[in-house]
Amino acid sequence: MIGAILLIAVGLVLLLNNLAVLDWGVWQTLSKLWPLLLIGIGFDLMLKKRRVAAVVVAVLLLGIVAGATALRHVRPVALVGMQVGVPTEGATLARVRLDAGVAALQVGSGPAGGPLLAGTIEHPEDAPPELRAELSGERMEVRLDQSDGDLGWLVGPGHGPEWRLQLAPDVPTDLRVEAGVGETQLDLRALTLSRLKVDCGVGQVRLELPGRGRYRAQVEGGVGRLEVLLPRGFPVRVEARTGLGAVSVSGDFQRDGERYISPGFEAASERLELEVEGGVGAIDIGLQAPEAPVPPLPAEAPLPPAPPAEAPPPPAPPAEAPLPPPAPAPATP
Length: 333
What we know:
Elements: H1 2-18, H2 26-30, H3 35-46, H4 50-71, E1 79-86, E2 93-99, E3 104-109, E4 117-124, E5 130-136, E6 139-145, E7 162-167, E8 173-178, E9 184-187, E10 193-199, E11 205-208, E12 215-220, E13 226-230, E14 236-241, E15 247-249, E16 254-256, E17 259-261, E18 272-277, E19 283-287
Parallel strand pairs: 2-6, 2-8, 3-7, 3-9, 8-10, 9-11, 10-12, 11-13, 12-18, 13-19, 14-18, 15-19
Antiparallel strand pairs: 1-4, 4-7, 5-6, 14-17, 16-17
């Protein structure tokens, strides 16, 4: 009985999330109210009349939802911006850990030859994230962490902080991302990955994977929709295990139970092994959109013919000869 009511409550909150009535950050607040579940179980065990116990538990869970709806109007504290930057310092390998806590996270690629990690992040004024970077031999170890901060007050549309980060595309990277609470967009198409681990938290996650090298990627679903876009024409093996939600896989794959294998995978030297563990929400796995061809430059229009040269002006008429001087007058005798 408790499990059924709990599923109803979770589904109701997810519905309000999708309808934008509740922000995804509300799950951080709900996580603090878990003792109410123990109270409900206690009522369920103590009361002999199951219907009465079910009503009590249902009222408690509905109280959670109502409280979360009221909390979405709480005014958040001020956020401050922070620039982060970690140079490569000659490292040829990298291990990067990102834990955004309650924040919308965007990760992309920076310019070749640029810093290993760069970008801007927002955080509460009294709770800055922790950034650690250490060069160990040829590998740079980086950790950017906000998970220890108490950010449960960040509820309501548009109130959460944002992290916008870029990673060096030319350094093989072992990347781990803790999505936390908030929308997550990971555009990793231009990166060079040696390994990838993504733990989805609460919120929608969009992941685009690169089509180069040989690496393994693990994605653990959380609460919310998960979209994984695979590189076109790149050998891939997908193993997808469902949770509380449907799994959809589209593309040129041969299915073997929970595995989806693209042609030429076994013999490929560069390939991707992807494992997806379902959570609560739909999982969509498909192919990236084909890159639009660069349109050719329009041919330059031929120059118009030059106008004919103007005829030279006619020569000036010769100057008239001067008149002869008058004859002298005859002498008078």
